[in-house]
Design brief:
globular, disordered N terminus, single chain, about 20% strand, about 40% helix, about 270 residues, alpha/beta, eight-stranded mixed beta sheet
Length: about 270
């Protein structure tokens, strides 16, 4: 059995100071470009998970890593977060190595083995969470059937103590010029407490769970009903500085309250 000292030596670096600074910058960056960040009320993350956690999400956009960092601070602040990325990309953005990011060679046996070895070591401690995009490439949120790479199934087959939680993500326009970030967590699975499956069986199970979460998110997104959502952060609003100044002047002249949003939401 691998010693605790050796296992900890394999963990990627995490600098709490760098994570804090980059998370603050990422939140500012997101809120400048999006109208709001919302989680589906029926899709909030479960509480009281006292075991290591794998959060796997659909890979919808370049924004995914920043959204994951935001959610990690919002819902999992007591945990240490890690995530694999392509080794070549990590060489370009070396500072990522200080926020729990670790490089993995794509499409190689050596890379697959390193991914399993490093991720299994991370999941040896219950305070850790790993964020995965197991589709392996950017894919439209509506693409079906949803298929995940076998790496997540191999990880489940050897990480019986970890919990696996699907996360559906969409970026969509509603009534404002800026888009919405919509997220919803799905049904959690703990391989060590379920009937055993092989690698393909686990991969199919997780594919179905993530697809179900995405389908529910898409249905609610199409309704555009703010009551379905918990608003967890609010970003940019308004149409343009010139047009908004004119609207403000009209509101003041008419003795009315100025509301920057194009279509104000009812408070719940």
């Amino acid at each position: 059995m691998r010693s605790e000292k050796r296992a900890r030596a394999e963990l990627p670096k995490v600098s709490a100071r760098v994570v804090r600074l980059f998370a603050a910058y990422s939140r500012w960056y997101l809120l400048r470009r999006f109208h709001a960040i919302r989680v589906l009320r029926s899709g909030q993350p479960p509480r009281g998970i006292s075991r290591p956690l794998v959060i796997y999400l659909n890979h919808a956009s370049w924004w995914d890593p920043l959204v994951c960092l935001y959610l990690s601070r919002r819902f999992f602040s007591s945990r240490r977060s890690f995530a694999p990325i392509d080794a070549e990309s990590l060489r370009k953005y070396a500072f990522f190595t200080f926020i729990g990011i670790y490089g993995v060679e794509q499409r190689s046996v050596r890379g697959a083995l390193k991914f399993l070895r490093t991720t299994t070591a991370i999941l040896s401690w219950e305070e850790n969470v790993v964020w995965l995009t197991p589709q392996g490439r950017f894919m439209d949120a509506r693409e079906r059937p949803l298929r995940l790479e076998r790496g997540i199934g191999a990880l489940a087959a050897r990480s019986g103590e970890a919990a696996f939680l699907p996360l559906a993500v969409e970026y969509t326009f509603w009534t404002e010029p800026q888009p919405e970030i919509l997220v919803s967590f799905g049904e959690i699975a703990i391989p060590g407490k379920e009937p055993p499956r092989d690698i393909d069986g686990w991969t199919e199970h997780f594919s179905s769970a993530l697809e179900a979460a995405q389908d529910e998110l898409a249905t609610r997104s199409c309704r555009r009903d703010p009551a379905d959502w918990l608003l967890i952060d609010k970003g940019a609003s308004g149409v343009s500085p010139i047009y908004d100044a004119w609207r403000l002047l009209r509101a003041r002249m008419g003795g009315k309250e100025f509301v920057r949003e194009h279509q104000p939401e009812k408070q719940n």
